[in-house]
Amino acid sequence: MSTEPYIILSAILFTIGCVGVLVRRNAIVVFMCVELMLNASNLALVTFAKANGNLDGQIAAFFVMVVAAAEVVVGLAIIMTIFRTRRSASVDDASLLKY
Amino acid sequence: MIEFSKPHIEYDLLWPLLLVFGVACLGVLVEAFLPRGRRYVAQTALALVGTAAALGGVIFVGVGLDDHGDARGTIAAEGALAIDGPTVFIWGLLLAITLAGVLLFAERRLEGGVSAFAGQAAALPGTDAEREASTRGLDHTEVFPLMMFAVGGMMVFASANDLLTLFVGLEVLSLPLYLLSGLARRRRLLSQEAALKYFLLGAFSSGFVIYGIALVYGYAGTMGFAGINDAISNSTESRTLLLIGIGMISVGLLFKVGAVPFQSWTPDVYQGAPTQVTAFMAAATKVAAFGAMLRLFYVAFGSERWSWAPMLWVIAVLSMVIGAVLAIAQTDIKRMLAYSSITHTGFIITGLIGARASSGLGEGEITSTQAVLFYLVTYGFMTVGAFGVVTLVRDAGGEATHLSRWTGLGKESPLVAGVFALFLLGFAGIPLTAGFAGKWAVFASAMSAGAWPVVVIAVLTSAMAAFFYIRVIVLMYFYEPVGDGPSVTLPSFMTATAIGVGALATVVLGVVPGPVLDLAAHAGEFIR
Question: Which candidate from B168, B199, B203 shows the least CB-CB separation from A63?
């Protein structure tokens, strides 16, 4: 089985996530795009584990999932707080700190 | 059926690290089971005793490390962590900074009996709920366990010997810091905004790290640093994966240290976060991240030096120049110190591109590892002290961070202004302060590796940076106070101790840098 298509798919997913973080305005959507980047990495890790014939990459994918879950807890807490304060989750509205 | 063999964990070497995590977990239990009134004392005592015990443990472990000629130490936990000289040095430094950090966190006198953290983070700013929390004198004592988790993550990060542990350490140190940045008692909108920016950009950069890890793993077929180095030396395959991977991992690490072009979060977060958190974070994160960077670049990517060294040349120059130029334009003291920390990142990276092994050195020259470790000591203590002073200068609205509020501080409080001037002179690198010794060390190590263009620019930038440090000193001493003038609130012994230790280190390391330089040299090389 060729592993190349999976790597290309993961690169495409990562790019979508990356561009999404840069162009989207809503903090929740930005955050979802970050999760997409992490999951693209998971796909790459598992594919390389298959290509290299060892399990390191698959184990790493588990850790990345746990990290992503922990990040959701912290991230949503922060986004929730800012939404309750400002009635908006737009990253453009949070602009008191600049220059 | 694969048979499982029990992993061998070197508890005798790892117990200071496990102790820190244990203290953090105990702190969570304290939050759950003790009544509110008793938590503050319990948490402070737990954090102080735990950190001090871990610091003692690190010294004990450091003295007993195995000696292998150039390097000392052991690869522990089945290859996940390297407990060697530099690791022990960085652990010790981190825990010392943490002790000062705990003292700053525990300060209650400045706010009139409560800490600098939000009474109730969930209560909206400007509502009855917030006022009630404030009149009842509520406190978030969760900051202590959060801090201990962050410290544990930093220790893992700095000692990680494979890519996965590196990533896990990075996240464990980052997540508590995102939360801590958002917990200020005053100016809560700024603080929450800082947390949001720090979180989104931090998560973005850790996405890059993990994808870079996947690519390097794809190239090398292993996550272990030593295995990656072997693969680089022996493999004849295309290096595309490896080079993109190194680049992406570097993005994440350079983000954490706040190097240009990944610095944009630094001023916002340093300004918005509670100053106590800024003091701790600015010093400790940088120490841990540079420890991890040194190990990653020298141990894992050591054979690929020709491809990452030019990148670091450019980033060092950019960080120094852009940090210094933008710092000149700042009107907020915390923001100015943030830009100054970006400049310092540039100086430390200058040390990073220096000579790697002690074997290739002439008499009196020093290795990069030694230079960077020494610089981190000087920078860490000065930063904690300087931000500690910022917490003292206050007006009715809390800390008076605008530079105009600092005019004439020398008349209002000669002692505080004097100590702050000392830190600024240290940052500027005036001889007989720690900053000078640190700069001399990194420049010398970069010179010995032939990076003279970077050193020339670094010296010129130091001169430029001196301008905005001296400007604050002039402002404090040679101008009359405007209006009411700034007022200095007397701190309790805790903040005073933290600032005092910082000031003492600034002077002692400047006058007699020898012992700490020797200690850094004694730490030796990274173990493989």
Answer: B168
